[in-house]
Amino acid sequence: MMKVPDFSRCPALVFTPMGRDAAVAVALLKETGALAHVCRDVVHFVAMLGEGICCAIVTDEGLRDADLKPLENWVSAQPTWSDFPFIILTQRGGAPDRDPELARLAATLGNVTFLERPFHPRTFISAVGTALRGRARQFEARLRIDELHEGEARLQTALTAGKLGTWELELSALALKASPACPPVFGYAPGESFTYTDLIASISPGDRSRMADAISRSHETGCDLAIELCTIWPDGTFHWADMHARLLRDHAQKTARLVGVASDITLRRMTEDSMQRDYDLLEARVAQRTAELERTHQLVLEEIRQRQRAEELLRQAHKMEMIGQLTGGVAHDFNNLLMAIMANLELLRKEPQDGVRATRLIDGALRGAQRGAALTQRLLAFARQQDLKVEPTHLPALVRGMTDLLERSVGPRVALELNLPDDIPLTLADGNQVELALLNLAVNARDAMPEGGALSIAVEEVHSCGEDGLAAGSYVRLIVRDTGKGMDLDTLAKATEPFFTTKEPGKGTGLGLSMIHGLALQLNGALRLQSEPGRGTRAELSLPVTAQRLTPESPKEDEQAEGIANGPTQASILLVDDDALIATSTAYLLQDMGHEVIEVDSGAAALEILKGGQWIDLMITDYSMPQMTGLELALAARELRPGLPVILATGYAELPQGTGIEILRLRKPYRQHQLAAEITRALRYARPTHRSP
Description:
It comes from Paraburkholderia unamae. 47% of the residues lie in helices and 19% in strands. It is an alpha/beta fold. The protein folds into five domains: 12-156, Rossmann fold; 162-264, 2-Layer Sandwich (Beta-Lactamase), CATH 3.30.450; 270-374, no CATH class; 388-544, Histidine kinase-like ATPase, C-terminal domain (Heat Shock Protein 90, 2-Layer Sandwich); 564-684, 3-Layer(aba) Sandwich (Rossmann fold), CATH 3.40.50.2300. The strands form five sheets. It has a five-stranded parallel beta sheet, with helices on both faces. It has a five-stranded antiparallel beta sheet with strand order 7-6-10-9-8, sandwiched between helices. The chain has a five-stranded mixed beta sheet with strand order 12-14-15-17-16. The radius of gyration is 57 Å and the shape is elongated.
């Protein structure tokens, strides 16, 4: 693409062979910013002419007697855009209408401006400026022509590459003009006669009306025409053509024509149809696969549920296994407690008159009973199946709270050493799971020291820089270290794998360390084991420090009971227990509080009392009874007397869920003030009940 020349670099030719005309012309041209080339003769002047010259300044005497044929040939050979400007300096009085020679020059050169000498410099500069501006417009015309030719070339290249045929339809006469590439789109040979009638005839009957509608819509609204048509070639084969056109009108709006292109899109449509068939087939397969996946998904939302249930059962089984391992020590300690109770009560029976001694014996029996109750409650709480509850936990306090259980677990041959500072920060953990983890580590340590040894349990605060699988931050670390057999590298590498155990068959599930490892990961911590054969094992459970605070604890059950008054006196209480010893003891406690007691030994007998219409303020029933449990009795009693308050006494850790009614629970063994507190609570919120006349 050529640019308009810079006239500071586009010279003018000066041919003034006599006098000072050349020097004057060159000086004046400099003022216009144009360069100047001075020619020595006509031959040199003609040779210097070219498209890069802006104009020529000559004197009439320089051309008057010269052979003008070469100059005439050059002027005639100019391209269509060029009309080279000549400025001829004439003698005074010289004009084409008075001088035949000047007229001949005007006819030969064409674009001539005559300037009579002498002239004013401004007149010369004005004439030169006019010539330069005219030449600039010629250069611009050349630029536009070149751009048009380049555009036509690019268009032709695009049409050829895209196999596009051009067409033009004059709408008033429906006269069609088509390029040679257009007829083959509709099945005709290139260059073959192809009229509008041939075009319509090649379109399938079902698409002809669409073509007519598209032409009418474009004619009426001026919108572009764009349509895909099914065509039938002369050989009877079916094809597809794509037609695009734009509406053009003349200035008078009298005639309009569509100018556009057409292309054969048969291959594309065949591909699209094939792809559509493939897509429909794929969509059907996807739908089928989706249905299969949904069925599989349901089997999996079920398999996962069963797996989760199995995991829960495994955890519970492992806890029960731990309790089984503790049974021997618990039985031994419980026998000691029962011995203390029995001995104190036997001595009390023999010496009833000694009040001081009797009081001391009774206190000893009560203390033994309380220790036994605390131990059994601890075991029941540990064995209970619970949901995970992550909350701020103070690990030293947690370890201290299970010291008795740990001592019973490791036995008398193992010395238990504790290092539990109070200034340890809190961590987020599930207390029940941490207790289970600690008990697992303690039992593993005990089994690794069959001849006895030392077990140390410590809690410390540590700071990690991102090592040992821990993110950078502060952690609370529970350390359990023993002096037992230890493990080699192979055993240590497998220690946390599920079901891996070095214990004898029937003495371990291999889930203990695996569960501790899973618990550590779940709480964003880590479990690390260090061990060498003959040098013992060190287990470190690291849990992140938390900024959360402990939730204020409610008063303990005994404190609540001590703070509650004995409650209303002279209540009528229906007491149900199949164990005569328990029933008698409870009845004495109730009567001692001033209540009226109706004592029965079965659920059926209790229901007979209720059916008889006797006034009852409250029913206290044991849970575990033959034929009818206490819970079943409570449900039946509520049907007879909906407002009847019920207290369920039980030694079990938990009761069946989903009873649908509110029942107070009194855990066995209980003391008189605990019994009084539950009676007060039950009667305080009781609704009035029916009293028969």
